[in-house]
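dude i think i finally got it to work??
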Amino acid sequence: MDRVRYPIKFTIIFLIVLIPLVILSLNLITSISEDIAFLEHERTGLAYIKAVRQPIEHIQQHRGMTAAYLNGATEFRERIMQKRSIVDKELAELGRAAKRDS
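look at this
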């Protein structure tokens, strides 16, 4: 190493330090990219949860009214039909949204 000039020595030292730094930087960038992709998928999932919440509430209400009707409360018949049309409309809208997103 005594015969090598200073610019070459500094270049070798620079490369020895630079190579691990580049490798660590690439690992960090890859990790951050994976985290971003994961969070984007979570956001998509939250959008679906938000879209599904309302139809589920109406389906539960329909189920409760139907159970009451089957147990003899005939005054629920008209409300059940109204709720059924609301559920059908919301499920059709949810289906269109799912087709649009995929």
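The chain has a mean pLDDT of 92.
im so relieved honestly
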